[in-house]
Amino acid sequence: MSDIVLNTECTDNFTLVSNNFIDRLMPSANGEYVKVYLYLLRCLTDRNISFDTADIADTFETTERDILRALSYWERTGLMSLRFEGNDLVEITFLDSNGSQKPNPPKGSGIKYNNEAPSSPAVANITTDGYEPIVKDKSEFAKTNIEDFCNREDVADITLALEHYINRPLGASELQSLLWWHEELKFPIPLIEYLIEYCLSRGHKSFSYIDSVARNWAENGINTVEQAKKVNNLYSTANHTVMKSFGIRGRSLTDPEIAVITKWTSEYGFSTDIIAEACTRTIMQTHEASFAYADSILKGWYKSHVSNLEDITELDNKFNASRKTKDKVTNAPSHTAQSNKFKNFSERDYDFSQLEDELVNRSSN
Fold first, then answer.
1. Architecture of the CATH domain 143-223
2. Predicted model pTM
3. Cβ-Cβ contacts under 8 Å for 297 (sequence gap 6 or more)
């Protein structure tokens, strides 16, 4: 076979990727992690790109936990370091694994380069309130005999059904995912079967999507079919609540919208009455079904540890009280001397009765 010649006529702007990353790290990395890393490099070249974990999650139609998991992986490789303040990721520092000088990123990008090689190995886990990996990465998963696993009668039934749905044989990485769900996530075979049925019934045949759902279930402690059905019923109820509160009719929710609602129910753990309240306030303020505005409300409530409607009322009361106090201070009359063109003189006190008597006496004389 002859060599392939690569040519280009593109004149677009480019994002530079180090050969070290391509040659040494990319081949063994999860494809979803690679996408996140490349997107971060893209953000370095354009300060106008909206940048936080929620925005990246929306871009790739996944969850913030998946984004944080990818960042944690790259930190373990020594490519970057992460800094948290409380529950928030506030800084990503790109570490120079080649020892070469890197250009400074645009100001305001929220991403920083460190032009010196790290003096110590990257930490194995992020042990902060912001994120602590619960599920090990597949690259750390000790493979057992996949062939023996797939020859099990119950597993063979799943693989045959799945191959029928996607209309092709399963690849080695997909078979490894089945084994990983069973051995690492501790999913019993009936739960794996329900997981696949659940995703396929919603039109998602991508293994990366199914894998993302499996990770989220594991992160939330789901390890039985009954638990999964309970969560999915809440998810369906939440979708209906949002559509009703936003007045969405004549169309279905889009995948990014569903991903946001899933974050409200799974990551934030909000009940449907709290979600409905946020949607109602969104309509009152914006007069439209703005998922971004509702998400900002719910994110604030999540940070304030809201768990019911009474907590929201208490927050409202504190806010109103604080605003009234501020207004009183702002509108309070000043006790300092004021001077302007209408009042640039010293005030005097007069006895008007005495003045009147003097005027009467003058006129009589």
1. Orthogonal Bundle (1.10)
2. 0.41
3. 278, 281, 282
